[in-house]
Amino acid sequence: MSEVADEATTSFLVPSKRISGWLFILSIWGILLWLLNLLKMATPTGDKVVWSSLLSIGLIGGDYQTTNPDFRPFSDGIFIILCVIINVLAVRGINSNVEGGMKGWLMNIKSDFWPALVDFSGSIRKTVSLWCILIGISFYITWGILNGGWVDPGVYAVAAPFVAFGWAFGKLADAEASEPNEN
What we know:
mainly alpha, globular, 2 domains, about 0% strand, two-stranded antiparallel sheet
């Protein structure tokens, strides 16, 4: 295999620090949704989510929800396997790219994000970015706890734009910080 192909495979199997962090959060979220779904707590009505239908936009698996509580190997099984694989890749990337591994990554979250939430002397874009992400996640968690439903297009329609806008604004702040000052 060529050196370029080896490097591409290595970067795929060991994602960067930033991508690993997002993959880790998404995989933990997926695992929690899977558990809530098995306990029939993922929707306010107590129905079970059919992951294959939800992720394929209805092309595979029929209806998005079902009252049938049975374990579906091609839906529930593949979803949890996918989440675990993503989690393994994320942990591998974090352990390879962050000094101190997972513990170092968690400490970096504390030292990087919390001061930026209240420190307006730095980049206002970074502060707005983190507040948007925090508002989106807080809304999702609050709505899920109060209404007993975690898989709902309405809650995603409110939370996802906050998180996406916050992430994009954070990328803009990072790009602005990395540009050399032209005075």
